[in-house]
Design brief:
Length: 504
């Protein structure tokens, strides 16, 4: 069968300005003044006259009085560059360390950090393919000012552009491949995105923050696929708006992990070489279906790069052979090796097309007891560590336990009572016979009454024809495999003097 495919990326944010990153990089300063005249194919730059371009393009005035300039010639005269993408009809203008992208016919400009500005007039193309842009668009760039003299029909441009020189070559290299960033947020604000790039580069990565928010005084474990650069920049965006860039993080000497703490004044501590924490076997992971797509029919969680067919289907094995409905969740216990830090999730939705989806590179590093993977409305996923930063409607604080008679064919559970641990609020769970190999189901509200419960059992011994009373204390449903566990009632050490249990 052909399947409609989705690729889910992991959500799975932050940024740093170096307060003590060493000497500032050398920079080149390009300054000057320029004059252009409406109808003239020439410009004067720092007193020298030159053709605007080889095609003889001239500035024009269009109703209702907007002056449009030939863009490429003007930008290159100021020492900048212009890149034209015919397919998307976009123009990327770079002056110094700043880049703004304009779109033909659109009044919205966007810079390399995703910030937008609205232009008075949308750019347009001439018949011979020259780009004309309103003069004020150049003032998107720091250090550029424009003015208009209506009497002389001239545009005056002054500019002072700082262009950082390339960083000097270094013998030392930074780490390459998957490297762990242990990032602590000390900014006083919630962070919702973290991206990285080589120092001084403008091509930032996708968001590597997997939780929805990194709160103040919280630490996140982020895996970066580094390229061996000795220095990187981090860029963070804040949940309430705004962003910050932390530059020139020195990674020389870093092996597999490094720690950085970012502050509200733009400074940071580190980077400090660190160790990757071992993954603990027995980590409990909850999978939430908040996709808004459909019920999940199959789910496989497995170490990155391995074959999902080698692992149990979570929905079938851990969820009692039911689909994982929208808004529902299940919990599993991972059998993890020390180096199993990144996990992949393969999903099949219970829809007509049996839609498949993959969530790759989910980081469970740093989770000591419990973690959660949430498939969201945007078909994305992220994981949350012990102190959950995402507000979830966790209706699954109630478990439905199956109390199973595993005592043998001579014994019947004739009466069952339950009470929250160390309490006196006993109530009847079952007053009917539960034969060997049979069970009764009961709901337990862990949110209201706690996870630990005490039980009373009346057991009928058919061999001796007598009834005996037994108690179990402190049965902890937090130890259950999922939210539909079996409570197997059995004899302690195979004897018949006391009861024991297995929770699975």
């Amino acid at each position: 069968m052909l399947h409609k495919q989705q690729t889910i990326t992991v959500l799975t944010a932050a940024a740093l300005i170096a307060a003590s990153a060493g000497p500032a990089a050398l920079a080149a300063q390009v300054s000057g003044s320029m004059t252009l005249t409406v109808g003239s194919p020439y410009l004067t730059n720092n007193g020298t006259s030159a053709a605007i371009d080889a095609q003889g393009t001239t500035p024009v005035v269009e109703s209702p009085g907007y002056t449009l300039l030939p863009l490429r010639g003007v930008v290159e005269a100021m020492g900048g560059t212009l890149a034209w993408d015919a397919a998307s009809q976009t123009i990327a203008i770079t002056l110094g360390s700043q880049t703004w992208t304009l779109t033909i016919g659109s009044a919205t400009a966007i810079n390399q950090y995703g910030q937008t500005r609205t232009l008075a007039v949308a750019p347009r193309l001439t018949e011979d393919g020259r780009t004309l842009v309103h003069i004020r668009a150049l003032e998107l760039f720091s250090g550029v000012t424009c003015s208009w003299n209506n009497a002389t029909q001239q545009v005056y441009i002054t500019y002072s552009i700082t262009t950082p020189d390339p960083a000097p070559a270094q013998d030392d290299e930074g780490p390459a491949g998957d490297t762990l960033l242990i990032l602590t947020n000390e900014t006083g604000e919630d962070i919702d995105a973290v991206k990285w790039s080589a120092a001084g580069a403008s091509d930032y990565s996708a968001n590597v923050l997997q939780s929805a928010l990194l709160g103040d005084d919280e630490t996140e474990y982020l895996w970066l696929d580094l390229d061996g650069d000795p220095e990187i920049d981090l860029r963070v965006t804040y949940a309430d708006g705004g962003s910050e860039t932390y530059e020139d993080l020195d990674l020389t000497g870093v092996d597999e992990a490094f720690e950085v703490a970012i502050q509200d004044d733009g400074g940071y501590d580190g980077p400090d070489d660190a160790a990757v924490p071992d993954m603990e076997d027995g980590l409990k992971v909850s999978l939430y279906n908040e996709s808004g797509v459909d019920d999940i029919a199959e789910a496989y969680l497995y170490p990155s790069g391995e074959d999902p067919d080698d692992y149990d289907g979570l929905v079938y094995e851990a969820h009692d052979e039911r689909t994982l409905a929208q808004g529902d969740w299940l919990r599993v216990t991972l059998d993890a090796a020390d180096d199993d830090h990144l996990w992949d999730l393969y999903l099949v939705y219970d829809d007509a097309d049996e839609t498949e989806a993959w969530v790759e590179g989910i980081s469970l590093t740093g989770a000591s007891d419990e973690a959660a993977i949430v498939v969201t409305d945007e078909d994305e996923a992220y994981r949350v560590l012990d102190d959950n930063t995402i507000e979830l409607d966790e209706t699954a604080s109630e478990v439905t336990a199956r109390i199973y008679n595993d005592l043998g064919e001579d014994y019947t559970l004739t009466y069952i009572e339950a009470s929250p641990a160390d309490g006196d609020d006993w109530y009847t769970v079952s007053s009917g016979d539960v034969e060997d190999g049979d069970y009764v189901s009961e709901d337990f509200d862990l949110d209201a009454d706690g996870s630990e419960w005490d039980f009373y059992f009346e057991v009928y011994d058919a061999y001796d024809d007598e009834y005996e009373d037994y108690y179990l204390y402190g049965v902890d449903f937090d130890d259950a495999y999922d939210d539909n566990p079996y409570l197997y009632i059995e004899w302690y050490d195979s004897g018949e003097d006391d009861l024991d249990y297995t929770l699975d």
